């Protein structure tokens, strides 16, 4: 697992350049362009299970889904931030991308620190220190575990249909 650390006000154009908005919609088309203007090494080196640590207002800007779709598709385990733009936060829930607000953990992290995340317990360990954040609601974790809001909704509807029979 690798940690990618960025600053404040990372907008959606930095996450996925707007010039590709109408030509890239599928995850495999989006992946090569993730963070290309912010961190040219990201798309080539990101691995499933990596974590992004970032400042305040992460995901500000337009409401395009490509940044979230792309980050989920490359396997980002979670984004831990000082704070998120609301529209990005909602899009991430819809796609099943885990977002955590824990400013203390972001501030504490130093390059090469070991990081362990336990979202279900509301804990992130940086080095030898555990930082706590509000435990995420079970429904948010269920949406993430299902792969996003649409797969979760489909599963819930199938269960209800099965219970009704």
Walk me through what this model shows.
This protein is α/β, with parallel strands linked by helices and about 160 residues long. It has one domain: Aconitase, domain 4. Helix content is about 35%, strand content about 15%. It has eight helices and seven strands. The chain has helices at about 10-15, 25-30, 40-45, 65-75, 85-95, 105-110, 140-145, 150-165; strands spanning about 5, 50-55, 80, 100, 115-120, 125, 130. The strands form two sheets. The chain has a four-stranded parallel sheet with strand order 1-2-3-4. It has a three-stranded antiparallel sheet with strand order 5-6-7. The radius of gyration is 16 Å and the shape is globular.
Summed up:
The protein is an alpha/beta fold and 165 residues long.
Characteristic terms for this protein:
three-stranded antiparallel sheet; four-stranded parallel sheet; Aconitase, domain 4; single chain; 37% helix; 8 helices; alpha/beta; 165 residues; globular
How many discrete domains?
Answer: 1
Lateral arrangement of strands in the main beta sheet: 1-2-3-4
From the alpha-carbon coordinates, what is the Rg to the nearest angstrom? 16 Å
The fourth-level CATH homologous superfamily is: Aconitase, domain 4
Main beta sheet: 4 strands, parallel
Task: List SSEs in N-to-C order.
Answer: EHHHEHEHEHEEEHH
**Mean pLDDT, all residues:** 92
Number of strands: 7
CATH architectural category: Alpha-Beta Barrel
Q: Cα distance, first to last residue?
A: 45 Å
Q: Would you tell me which CATH topology applies?
A: Aconitase, domain 4
Query: In terms of structural class, how would the helical and strand content be classed?
Result: alpha/beta
Helix content: 25-40%
Q: Give the uncertain stretches in residue-range form.
A: none
Beta-strand fraction estimate: 15-25%
């Amino acid at each position: 697992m690798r940690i990618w650390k960025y600053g404040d006000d990372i907008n959606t154009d930095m996450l996925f350049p707007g010039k590709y908005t109408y030509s890239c919609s599928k995850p495999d088309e989006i992946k090569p362009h993730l963070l290309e203007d912010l961190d040219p090494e990201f798309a080539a080196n990101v691995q499933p299970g990596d974590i992004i640590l970032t400042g305040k207002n992460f995901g500000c800007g337009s409401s395009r889904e490509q940044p979230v779709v792309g980050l989920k598709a490359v396997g980002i385990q979670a984004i831990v931030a000082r704070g998120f733009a609301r529209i990005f936060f909602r899009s991430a829930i819809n796609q099943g991308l885990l977002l955590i607000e824990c400013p203390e953990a972001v501030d504490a992290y130093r390059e090469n620190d070991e990081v362990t995340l336990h979202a279900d317990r509301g804990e992130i360990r940086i080095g030898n220190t555990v930082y706590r954040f509000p435990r995420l609601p079970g429904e948010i974790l269920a949406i993430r575990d299902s792969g996003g809001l649409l797969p979760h909704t489909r599963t819930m509807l199938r269960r209800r249909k099965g219970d009704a029979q």
